[in-house]
Amino acid sequence: MDDVNHAVDIAKAALQATPPYHSSTLRRIGTLAAALAERFRRTHAVDDIDQAVDLTSFSLAFTDPHHINYALSLNNLAVYLLARFEQTCRLEDINRAIEICQALESTSTGASHQRGLSLQTLSCCLARRFEQTRQAQDLDWAIDAAREAVSLTASESAEALSNLGNLYFTRYEQTSSMPDLNSALTVHAEVIFLMFEDQGVADHDRQTRLISNASRPFCSLLERQGGSFQLLNGIIEISEVSLSTMPLGHPSRYVMLQTLAKLLRVRFSRTDRLDDLHRGVALAKESASLLPADHPDRPISLDHLGGWLATRFFRVGAAEDLDRSVELLETAASTTPTGSPRQGEILATLSAVFRSEFERTGNEEKLEGAIRAADEAISATPPTHIMRPARLIQLANNYLTRFRRTNDPTDLDRALGAANTAVSIATHDHPDRAQATYTVAISLKAQFQMTQELDSLDHAIDICERTLVHIAPDDHMRATVFNLLGMLLQSKMGVLGDEFREGNELLLRYLKKGWGCRDSPPSLRIEIGAKLAASLASQLSWAEAATILQEAVELLPRVSPRPLSDDDKQQMLRQFAGLASAAAAVTLNAKRDADHALRLLELGRGVINGLLVEIRSDISDLRKAHSHLAQDFEYLRGVLDSSGDQKKNYDQRRELNVKFDELIQVIRSQPGFEGFLKPLTVDEMKTAADRGPIIVVNVSRYRCDAFLVEPSQIRVLELPKLSFEELHTRAGQLKTDHLPALAWLWDTVANPVLDFLGYKHPPPPGVEWPQVWWIPTGAMGLLPLHAAGIHDKGSGETVLDRVISSYNTSLKSLLYTRRQDLPIASGKSNQALLLAMPETPRQSPLPFANEEITLLRGLCQPLHLQPVEPPQCRNEVLQRLKTCKIFHFAGHGQYNPSEPSKSALLLSDWESNPLTVADLRSSRLQDASPFLAYLSACSTGANRAVDLVDESIHLVSSCQLAGFRHVIGTLWEVSDKHCVDVARILYQTIRDQGMTDASISLGLHQALLELRDRDEALGHIVDREPVPSSLCSKGRDAIPLGKNGRKKAEGTSWLNWVPYIHFGV
């Protein structure tokens, strides 16, 4: 800008130094006007363009019409008026500019070059007036003028051609006329050819205009109808070169940034290349940052950025992108003048993100906002505009979304009406034809689900088959249509059964074609793969199904990458619950090795926790061998741990993750570190069993098995009595029909497994108890495997009478915990963090919580522990966790099945600042190596989030991930009174046996035995009756108090020892 300001100052000084009637006066007026216009172009200060218009008008008043420069000055005045119109939208300016150009063209007797220049200006002015008034005649006249300008222009033919091509494309947008699109493509192809030939000094303004104009028709063609990637890559290459040579402060830079971003979006839409997606976001951010708030292109730059962020949210799932997108688009919509040609585009994008926000949060106001914005976008879009069908499709999808919410047939009728209207407008060569017909098909699917009329289903299938004709072979929308066809065929097969003989054949054909669309998004491929594998499995094609499911499981990390926040990872993984279990089961049916099936199960479960385990893994060996690499690793994991510092935005986390992945590759290139942070090998899995067998119970619709991991082998025991369906039924009945449920669990799972391992009888007196580790999958995680058995007095037919039971979420997690330092004899801390919550705001009182902590306080001295009892608030507790060896909480627990990361321990400030799973998981305590977290509260180990059951997100696992070597928790509600008994026996065992790994699991085992035997003595087990409420006192589940201060609900009490579980090494 300094050079432009300097030019204005020099021009002003020169004019002031010139006598009024000097021969150079008019020329110097023109020079000053040009300098002011250039400064306006950069700053958009209206005062500058006003002065340029006034000075040029003054100059013309004193210029002989026959003077050689008169026509040029007139043309300049028209250009300045056009520039002022683009800033202020005053019609009198553009009308005056057109009158000047028309007068100039009709009286021009000069060189064809000058006439061609004035015709170009005229065509630009007419085009701008068309955008304002929508008078089609202006656009036609503009094209006529541009055509003639091309015939008269030689040296600037690229500029003239570009203007003509741009106008052809504008008319195509208004009328959907394919001849106009073809003309635009032909003209711009010539422009691109001329640019390749042009090796002169870069004119950045000119290059930007040419590339920006050329990108519009080519993007439309490639994005909507397919086409040559060679051509697209060529335009991208030219744009990259132009941008790389353009100064950072150049006024055309924002346009080039937007143009390149749009080109990359087209390529991303066809290839799913994430590099293009992330680069596009970065370019759009830079472009928006260059424009001040009063810039006329500011709203469209915000729209571009908002659209890019929305696109990345749809693909990657970062909620912060969606939130920022809504914010930007609302600003863009509110600052766009009514009637602006950009209004419809901005409102349409805003509608899309509003609907996405509703789908994520359930906020119905957002859905209503989406419908309103779509309606307004349609109103702002002329009936013949190329984008009219797209706007109608969006409205149809919004109504369809509301129908799924309300089941109101009116919404379904509106959706079908809008979709059918879109189809009627979108002719067979229209770019949105396929999307319009697809929308009709999904609306008909919804209609079938409401009415069960096969006609709707058949019509939808027929439409989908015809839709495929309009989709380019390399467009991943094909995968979307094939997926819908699969769903439609499955519905039809469900109605007709064996009568639909060709159903399976058609289903396999379409799903295989969908699976073959390898460039489609990973989430869509996984969904199709799971359906295809199920269909193949139904025909006993186990080998092919196993191969597909293996690839689907291997795609899971791509839908839940490390840079996403943990909440976003949860959202992405919800739709794939049970995938890994199915893959393992089908792999076994395909007669493949047990270790191969188990590795798949490990890879596809606990994805979120697995990423944290990786990043928090012990690197002592690396530190000894390559200290510089270890230092780099520690720095990156310190700033990248997504469960910790969430202040970094997604882009920052993504960039750090790229560096982290590159560092991992460097580490793996070092001798002896080839397997660094790779999935567990078979030998590593067997090593995990060196303290006792590990039993991974896998449940799927195909088969149920126990993987038995031992130091020398991995075996599989099929569990023929266990079925997926009955497991879910029993899990639901557990609390109301507990003894039969425990007996069933013994008969179907525990007894066959323990017998197979050789644990057929209780250990003789004086013999050390054997220990096993259970890793349940799916709904099996809801059941107390450690309590399975026939609990008749003295039967011995129980897990509790044969082995000590511990749990873990995965083999990887178990090994991770074992590899942490063991601070037993002389740890870094001897503090016991003790928290009793006998009174909790808005919760029932727990009279035995103080007794529990008093008991522990008395045991601290013989355990060589220093009791610490801080203020009962979240921040204080989190700070104290960093220096404790034992953490014992006696209070209320709150489980959140819809968002398990928000499950919490309730402290005094829980209503405003709860201590959640996310908080505990974020507490990186590995360096302190805390020994035991005892969560004496309800449901601290509950895993009832059905769609996240494989992720094992609960308070117990979060403490383990934070660094605790052992965690005691509960599967569901526990008795306040009996909590004291369990804690007493466990800590007395530690006192007697020493603070060892074995003493924790043994202490809980003895506590459960004593409580179980007490129940037997009272007759509650033999008589098959629930334990009386009088023996249970109050539970420690978070149940809000009513207005009278009493609990709103009081559950039936029962076997109080069953819910307690141990997670640890």
Automatic annotation (TrEMBL):
<feature type="domain" description="CHAT">
    <location>
        <begin position="741"/>
        <end position="1017"/>
    </location>
</feature>
<dbReference type="Pfam" id="PF12770">
    <property type="entry name" value="CHAT"/>
</dbReference>
<dbReference type="InterPro" id="IPR024983">
    <property type="entry name" value="CHAT_dom"/>
</dbReference>
<dbReference type="InterPro" id="IPR011990">
    <property type="entry name" value="TPR-like_helical_dom_sf"/>
</dbReference>
<protein>
    <submittedName>
        <fullName>TPR-domain-containing protein</fullName>
    </submittedName>
</protein>
